[in-house]
Amino acid sequence: MIFSKTGLLAVSLAALVASGCSTSRFSSMDDQQPAPLTPAPSGTVTQNQLPPPAAPGTTDPSQFPTAPKNTQVASLPPDGTAPAGAADLTAASVAGVWNVNVSGQSCKVATPQTKFGAGYRAGPLHCPAPIDGIKSWNVAGKQLTLYDENGGALARLYSSGGEKFDGQTSNGQPISLTR
């Protein structure tokens, strides 16, 4: 008896298909029903009027969380030089997410090591002006500088030891970064 290769292949495929259709691997699952889900807790929904929006260009300080009253920002020398004991910085030592305090208002700024312009990309989250305009950052020696979209310096900071930076914004406000 002589079989052609095509015929043998067709018979093999038919046998595989037939055996696949009669499998019992999933039959035990047909008898099981999933447990019912627990309903989400219900509560009372209330309706109140929202306050009117602030006029463009104004900021309501009550919308930002405030820093603890005992927060202190180290003062910088008036000539803008690094304070005594400030450490040399590396991009790796600055990369991450920082809690920012600007004149008593708090927010967060992400400082990933993603190249952007002459430094690295930065992302402020719910920050007050001028920190809301941060687009990039870079380090040079002991100084961390935060830049706007045009490359203008928004703030200059120095390491205050550990995971903390202190400095001033371009308009003279005290600023600190902590982790």
TrEMBL record:
Residues 89-179 form the Alkaline proteinase inhibitor/ Outer membrane lipoprotein Omp19 domain. The keyword Ion transport does not apply. It comes from the Bacteria. Residues 59-74, 167-179 have a biased composition (Polar residues). Belongs to the rhizobiaceae omp19 lipoprotein family. InterPro entries: Inh/Omp19 (IPR021140), OM_lipoprot_Omp19_bac (IPR010571), Protease_inh_B-barrel_dom (IPR016085). GO terms for molecular function: peptidase inhibitor activity. Residues 24-84, 160-179 are annotated as: Disordered. This is Protease inhibitor Inh/omp19 family protein. Residues 1-20 form the signal peptide. The keyword Iron-sulfur does not apply. Keywords: Cell outer membrane, Lipoprotein, Membrane, Palmitate, Protease inhibitor, Signal. It is found in: Cell outer membrane. The lineage of its organism: Bacteria, Pseudomonadati, Pseudomonadota, Alphaproteobacteria, Hyphomicrobiales. Its main location: membrane. It is a lipid-anchor.
